[in-house]
Description:
By secondary structure, this protein is mainly alpha-helical. The protein has 2 domains: 1-58, no CATH class; 62-141, no CATH class. It is built from 5 helices and no strands. Helix 1 (3-28) packs antiparallel against helix 2. It is elongated. The termini are far apart. Residues 61-71 and 73-82 have low confidence and may be disordered.
Amino acid sequence: MTVWLSDLAAYSIQLAVLVATAAAVTSLLRLRQPRAAVAFWQALLVAALLLPLLQPWTGTTSDFMISARSFRTSTTAALTESGGVSVATWLAIALGTGVAIRLAWLGLGLIRLRQISSRAARADECSTLFADLTAGLDANA
């Protein structure tokens, strides 16, 4: 397994534990106020984004690097001789494809949102409609 793949797996596990713990805390504390819930989840988002930066950086010894390189070389040679693609390459392709699909989905949502907001009427244009409705319903709030 390559270094970036093991780092990604460690980050994913840490993030899953962090989100599961946060979900348990919100249900135990019965956090029902919308502003408090949004602030809590936004703080969790910031923590999740800062998590890779807060990890301690440790240097590797030369023995480990030599053994990792020799292991990597031997597995790569075996995989390329058989004509196959390494697992790390397939995972990178799958992750990249997932990111591209998600970004396209968000882009389509943004386009749809712009279309909806461009067709929306301003509140002052609807004030006569609201006045007629409140008068017709005899509602005074």
